[in-house]
Amino acid sequence: MKDRSLLMIPGPIEFEPAVLQALGAPTTSHVAPGFIDAFGRALENMRQVWLAPEGQPFIVAGSGTLAMEMAGANLIEPGDRALVLSTGVFGDRFEDLLSRHGADVTVLRAPIGQTLDFNRVEDALKGGGYKLLTVTHVDTSTAVRMPICSIGDLARRHSVLSVVDGVCSVAGEEIQQGDWDLDVVLTASQKAIGVPPGLALLVASQRAMEAFSARSTPVRSYFADWEKWLPIMAAYEGRKPSYFGTPAVNLVAALDVSLRQIVDEGMTARFARHELLAGAFRAGVRAFGLDFVTTEPDHRANTLTACRYPEGVAAADLLSAIKHAGVIVAGGLHPEIKTEYFRVGHMGAVRMADILATLGAIEIGLRSVGCAVAAGIGVAAALEWQAGNED
Ligand SMILES: *Cc1c(COP(=O)(O)O)cnc(C)c1O
């Protein structure tokens, strides 16, 4: 038996062999012609993946939290007002982060598992004076997906910059940064982008870059300062060598491979695949009789699912039984319900076979903790869903 398991957590995910090969290739100089070309191409392909033809992409070594910090550090000056729309742990993270950069932060918090009521957002914005709002597209602690297609419009009407935390959505859930007029859409390499952890990725609108240029105080983070990184991105895109901080050479090479695969698949097809597989997975979960943390069916994410444990089942027992059956899923994350649910990631290179294997492993797990489940019921429901929804 091969000693391997299927990693079905909301990042890091399973990666394509070609991406891992690029990661394992001999490291080159950060100014080697081949690397300059890979970096430049990755920046160009980010615009296609983000559907942001006019956007300014940034690739910087770090995690998703650094991408969040880059947005906050560059767009906030001390005393600026910021509105945080929170649907879970990652929304709350923005409150702390923006405060560190001197923002006067107001948080609108949704009940756990629900989206935020847009009337509340509109009312808050009417109070006026906000420079920036943040929204978490998919909050990985609740699997709630916020409807962000109208956020740009809302932001325009109130002259606010919009920052979208797309760490658990970019390249998995539909985002059209350009058409939806979103100012910053940020992510990290290890989620639906499909590259091992280590890169912070974001695309900023021209409006965001102008707001940055109009600052009257210096950015308080040396490393996150766009002033430092903008010439670097411009140089790589113009296929010229440059240096500020050494780029994560192998990760950028791997990113280049992954972005090319994503562009080849096509964004419409990629979003549709995530939607189909998420639907199939949820059909299987429902067949087991499990509930979802995300209460509104239309707002359940396509990149991960948050499933409540059956009554009386101990979290650790079920998770280790699923792991024993060959699939790794994640525990709860939201502090208020942490012990009540588990999370399954289904993004990036995921395919139907992974969904079926995961449902099979969950079935084995459920049975081993004493739940009565009919043989194959989850897998059958997922296959039925697929048959009924594939075009
Ligand atoms: C994972 C995640 C983050 C944090 O990213 P790190 O790479 O862990 O720093 C932020 N927001 C969301 C929605 C995430 O899923």
Which features does this protein show?
391 residues, alpha/beta, Aspartate Aminotransferase, domain 1, Aspartate Aminotransferase, domain 2, 7-stranded mixed sheet, 3-stranded antiparallel sheet, binds pyridoxal-5'-phosphate
What is the CATH topology classification name of the largest domain? Aspartate Aminotransferase, domain 2
Counting DSSP H or I runs of 4 or more residues, the number of helices is 13
Estimated structural class: alpha/beta
Give the termini separation: 37 Å
What's the architecture of the largest domain, going by CATH?
A: 3-Layer(aba) Sandwich
CATH superfamily of the largest domain: Type I PLP-dependent aspartate aminotransferase-like (Major domain)
Bound molecules: pyridoxal-5'-phosphate
CATH class placement of the largest domain: Alpha Beta
- Rounded mean pLDDT score: 97
Strand count, sense and barrel status of the largest sheet are:
7 strands, mixed
C-alpha Rg (nearest Å): 21 Å
Count of individual domains? 2
In terms of per-residue confidence, which ranges show pLDDT below 50 for 5 or more consecutive residues?
Answer: none
What helical percentage do the residues reach? 40-55%
- Tell me the strand percentage band: 15-25%
Order of helices and strands: EHHEHEHEHEEEHEEEHHHHEHEEEHH
| Oligomerization state | single chain
Spatial order of the strands in the main sheet? 2-10-9-8-5-3-4
What spatial form do the alpha-carbon principal axes imply? globular
- Count the beta strands: 14
